[in-house]
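Dear colleagues,

For the upcoming journal club I promised to circulate an example of a predicted protein-ligand complex. I picked one with nicotinamide-adenine-dinucleotide because it came up in last month's discussion. The inputs are reproduced below in full, followed by the predicted structure.
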Amino acid sequence: MVTGRHHVLVTGGAGFLGSHLCRRLLDEGHRVSCVDNFATGSADNVDDLDSRVGFRLVEHDVTEPLPELGAVDAVLHLASPASPVDYRRLGIETLRAGALGTERALDVATRNGARFLLASTSEVYGDPDRHPQPETYRGNVDPVGPRSMYDEAKRYAEALTTAHAGRYGTDVAIARIFNTYGPRMRADDGRVVPTFVTQALAGTPLTVAGGGEQTRSICYVDDTVDGLLALLRSRIAGPVNLGDPHERTVRAIAERILWHTGSDSPLTTVPGAPDDPRRRCPDITLARTALGWEPGVSLDEGLRRTVAWFAAVGTAAA
Ligand code: NAD
Ligand code: UDP
């Protein structure tokens, strides 16, 4: 699947992860239809692709029936707000993207006999009480909590994807993506890396939430893209965790970003986000054994590239 020259539909392709995926697929010689309504992404993320042969940008909301795009060989469904700031602001839209949007995207895959990949999330594990999290862990999610619009949208999307495969034989894959960072994140999307990098470059205090002792594992975007494409090319349905297995405190991430920017910004403590997971780290045994995938970009190399991008263009775009 998607080894020769194929036509790939990427929903949410004008977002952070989607734009990197579109670029990689074009580099590999595929044709790409990028469908996005710019709810949290921007045409700027793919403006360098506009002139490339085989690329098409379609402004469209995936909760509405998709326009005719011709025969499609694979569908990568990423359309959804993803940062906590965005999905709280766009709660209903996030639920609709996970429910209606996933169904529309699955319908396209089924009609075309295409492989379908759902961009799910580590948030399906909620505030986990098992560490690290394997795919068999069922999670600790509050269905009416402040993250419920995102967590439950993705849990529903996983269930719908599984049901579609069961009823229609759709060839599906579910990726549970853990925190990913890199160039083309919005400086103001509220996520930890773009926020800290932007603050460090501006010389303003880094807003460490709670005590900063909560943990995340952050994966550089090129590695996540490699993992998504490895899963797409496999015959595995998953779910498969894709993430960096090095668990770090938020405070440690802040200190590393200060080092990379050479900034003397102080760390300041701000109130913790509601329902903020205390620990998060993937068990990637399945991805390693079944896909031969694991992250290859070190934290220092990933931050070096990210800081360079924000210093050059990222903060100017905000
Ligand atoms: P992003 O906000 O940068 O990209 C999401 C894109 O989807 C945006 O371009 C947005 O405009 C588009 N979109 C949203 N609703 C839409 C709709 N109804 N119709 C059409 N387009 C719509 O976020 P991202 O970080 O690139 O995340 C992409 C996907 O990966 C999301 O599904 C997210 O849940 C998943 N994911 C990302 C991460 C991460 O760390 N980046 C982690 C876990 C899962
Ligand atoms: N965080 C922080 N300061 C910020 C933004 C985020 O301390 O300015 C923390 C946040 O509370 C969480 C972690 O960084 O513990 C990761 O947050 P992010 O929004 O990037 O993603 P999440 O994993 O929560 O979806």
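Two points we might discuss: The longest helix spans residues 91-112. The domain at 7-182+219-245+281-296 is CATH 3.40.50.720 (Rossmann fold).

See you all on Thursday,
B. R.
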